[in-house]
Amino acid sequence: MPYSMTGWGTYRTKKFTINLRGLNSKYKEVVLHLPQEFFEAEPFIYKYLNDSVIRGRVDLYVNLDRDNIKKQVVSDPELFSQAHKSLKKLAAAAGIKGEIPIQAVLNSTDGIIMVKDAEAKDTFSWKKIKPVIESAFSDFMKMKKKEADGHVKDIEARLDIIETEAGKIKELYESFKEEYKNKTRERLDSIIAKENRQGFLNTEAVEVLDKYNITEELVRIASHVKQARTIVKTDAAGRKLDFLAQEFYREANTIGSKINSADVAHTVIRLKENTEKIREQAMNLE
How many CA atoms lie within 13 A of 3 on its CB side? Predict the structure, then answer.
């Protein structure tokens, strides 16, 4: 089943939230936005996402809920003593008597009292956070699948139109052949009316018509439509559909250059318009 390159996935725990965002990109990109606590698990997270995505940019954001992270107060008595002695010397030098307030000592030097995370060392290990990443990714893929369903539905509708337009071109071509043969015969008859060369004229008209034969182009369009309908059911549909769309364009341009008919030209334009829509939708698929 195909997936869109765009999407959003979320999973929350008491300690942190995982958010995944997918964006369109010609290539595969995985970008991680992690707090310091997740750095040890970073290469495992990157590999998991890189192995799971075919095309597009994926951003993963981790937001810690600091209020639910275990903390502990750590003090440095030696640093406090040094700061206190320094302040006493300054006070004495300035002729100030009395005790130095504890708050003044604490405010003078950073690091005397600190609050540190007290979580177990493996709280943010890959083993512990992997199930959360997987749950967020599952939510992410559900949205990507939902968006892809819309793209595929539109592509299939465009393929139906292309198939219909190709059928119209085939009918117009049959009419064009007869009209061209008759006009060619009339012109040549008027030029060499005195010579008995009717068989030659018919042969000449048919040979000229070979230059305008679009049977192969119509056969290839029918084949491309069939292929496209198969591709939209596969995982890696985007690039393949984009390639087929280019083939549709090529066949349409060839038909337009071979057949000098306003009706055919209008039909070719509609064929190309729907081909362009298919390319636009294919750019959204992995």
Answer: 23
